[in-house]
Amino acid sequence: MRWRPAAATSAAEVARAGHAQGRGTLLAVSGPETLTAGQVKAFLSPAEAPFDTSSVRYGIRAYRLTYRTVTPQGAPTVATGLFVLPDGGPRRPALVADTHGTMANRDYAPSHAIEDPTGRMSPYLHASAGRAVAAPDYLGLGDGPGRHPYMDTASAVTASVDMLRASRTAAGRLGRPLTGDVYATGFSQGGQVSMALAKALQAGADRHFRLRAAAPIAGPYDLEHAEMPAVFDGRLNGVSAVFYLSYYLTSQNRLHPIYKDPAEVFRQPYAGIVEGLFDTRHKDEDIVRALPPTPKELLTDAFYARLQHPTGVLLDVMRAQDTTCDWKPEVPVRLHASAGDRDVTVANTLSCVRDLERHGVRVPVVDHGRADHFGTFREAAPQIARWFNELEGTRP
User: Fold this and answer.
1) DSSP letters of 199-232?
2) What is the pTM of this model?
3) Are 31 and 77 in the same domain?
4) For the residues 23-31, what does the mean pLDDT come to?
5) What are the angstrom distances between the C-alpha of 59 and each of 36, 87, 109, 133, 229?
């Protein structure tokens, strides 16, 4: 991506400038990168895994936003995200809140996507269908300072709400004021975040935004009863499970006292390197190569057993992320998943359905069958773009 220079010269200066202002304050805009509709279609059609591009109608203009938000502890910080406008369509577009999946390298984040373009695929898809898109990098990714608090749902939601606020300001400055309608979607980690964000928006997180629909994809909604058991019973791919577990445990330990020494959790030689691997600078594929292929080889015997029967702080940490489906949506919701997914088991989605049913809401599940994790995303995202089109078309 080639971006025009930002208004501030460094993230530190941007942070100092914004700390006297409120959450969601827009501090800098870089861009745009522009693509025609044809270029969007080409971008979404890699030879190895092309997307359905039938919803693409417009070119796009993409911007990197820097804005003010808060850390998990509530201290002021800054974050970045990708804001995309359709090059055409209504002067006042609705907004898609698009939350990305797991990534350990900060340059994979949507506002950068230097090493891997995956983080831009869904934002470009939805913008080319005619809606503006706010795709937060989350904390500690993109140009955000520090490390990413992986799977800390609360801070992912605050960063996402504040990205919506910054996008609202940017849209006004760019002559494309937003309607205030928000359609929430996200994949994998972002599937869980999008459900939590939808819950927060319906509850009134910001009076300027009205939730209209939610369509999460393959989210880990139930760590305690679905995702974590699948790590140990063979439903998940061992290499993926090792990556997620290492990222999750090292990140959560910075927020909660799970362990004092990595050697309590990880076998040697991994105990000596695992925390350094998740410094936001290592590429995901390099992290995978540095770690063993199975959780049994990664974890000590004692922690391997503890993780199968969590108690205390470890159980509290899991349960803190497992309430995203515990609400009563007043808008249409569709869940996308695949029985063939060996990264995030479909049991997460079935658990989410049960949570919603306890509130009297029956939510349809679109099962993409034998598709793997990324394949679920590739099949679901275009369907969601078309569904949002249908829903928006029915509004007066």
Assistant:
1) HHHHTTS-TT-EEEEEEEES----IIIIIHHHHH
2) 0.93
3) yes
4) 97
5) 4, 5, 21, 13, 44
